[in-house]
Amino acid sequence: MAKSKTTTSFIQLVNLDEIKKASVVLRSLNHDTRQKMLGLIHMNKEIMVTEIYKHLDMEQSQASSFLSLMRKAGVVRTRREGQVIYYSVDYERLSTIEKGVRIING
Question: Which among 54, 59, 68, 87 has the fewest CB atoms less than 10 Å away?
Fold first, then answer.
């Protein structure tokens, strides 16, 4: 199916790839459990995934999946020590996200 002129004009007007990337970032923060995880990481400065899923009483696979999404969004950082991965909050990235949201919301 061929794209209409309206669709083509819209695609040229906005960068849909950038919008998709932004939606992943916002989605990583817009979830109760992920917000709790971020708060727990903040309170501990740096924390292992094991501590997170035990403290929040969740499955390890779900905690790892959520952390992966937050890592891809750039809201958490990782540091490896042997086989252990420690998570910390990327405050600079969160500040940038908040500024962008304020612009979007006017």
Answer: 59
How far is Cα 51 from Cα 49, in angstroms, rounded to an integer? 5
In whole angstroms, how far apart are CA 53 and each of 28, 34, 61, 66, 105? 17, 11, 9, 11, 33
Edge to edge, what strands does the sheet with 76-81 contain?
Answer: 47-48, 84-89, 76-81
Q: Which two tokens stand for residue 56?
A: 């929040």
Q: Set out the domains of the chain in order of their start, with CATH numbers.
A: 18-105 (1.10.10.10)
Q: At what angle do helices 16-29 and 60-73 cross, to 10 degrees?
A: 140
Q: What is the pTM of this model?
A: 0.82
CA 83 from chain centre, in angstroms, equals 23
β 47-48/84-89 pair status: antiparallel
- Give the pLDDT mean for 65-88: 96
